[in-house]
Prior knowledge:
It contains 7 helices and 11 strands. By secondary structure, it is an alpha+beta fold. It has 2 domains: 2-71, Multidrug-efflux Transporter Regulator, Chain: A, Domain 2 (Orthogonal Bundle); 121-264, Multidrug-efflux Transporter 1 Regulator Bmrr, Chain A (Alpha-Beta Barrel). Strand 2 and strand 3 form a beta hairpin. The longest helix is centred in the middle third of the chain and has 33 residues, at 74-106. It starts with a strand and ends with a strand.
Amino acid sequence: MYQIGEFSKMTKLTVKALRYYDEAGILTPSCREESGYRLYSDTDYGKAKLIALLREFGFSIAELRDVMGHYENRDDLRYYLAEKKVQIEARIRDCRSLMRQMDAYLSLPEQEENSMSYKVEIKKLEPVLIASVRFQGRYEDTGKYFAKLFGAVKNRAAGAPFNLYYDGEYRESDADIEVCVPVRESVSAAGVESRHLPTMEVIVTTHVGPYDKLGDAYKAVSDFAAKNHLEMKVPSRETYIKGPGMIFKGNPNKYQTEIAVEIVR
Length: 265
């Protein structure tokens, strides 16, 4: 049996790391004296070598805990390494995609970086009958809910679709969103609600371009509100005047999105 100090020298794992691995359930010493001192065995040495190898291969603490909780022999290791390779290949693809985006950004003429200007104004939105589906999830989930909604609405649509966003801030996975379509008559379908939106006074502007640049339009609206001492309230409304089709996305530089945020008088 080896005390923690000499075991640290043998394994090239710091005492601090060994204590952490013990607390995390990744490498628990085979024996613990009444005084609390950790004692490690030859079996622990083999586990420590495996941990060091996996750390070299980029395994996270959570992944180490998962592997060490199930590892029995080298054959098991082959499966874990194969899965890790798939994860690394996915990250490589993501990194290459990021590099292409960086190249595209760097290739833009300097004056185009902040070329978008916005006409911001106050106007009244007329009352409208809508069919809608409200959900909590990711922003990119709206497409599948629109597909469900249009399937229920069919030929009763009476205007451009829009989203209502009920959060006052950006949320990664639990955004409160309502996908809406103006309709000529009420729609009755499972999970679909029909109701009238009332007249509302809003700050409004139109963004031309891809959706990942919509933040510039929201900034223009916020700056207008601050300059004119106006208080804004949720939900904000994004109306997709011109956007991707159901099959082809088309040219995102030509998308037109109206941003409207209700104000409190």
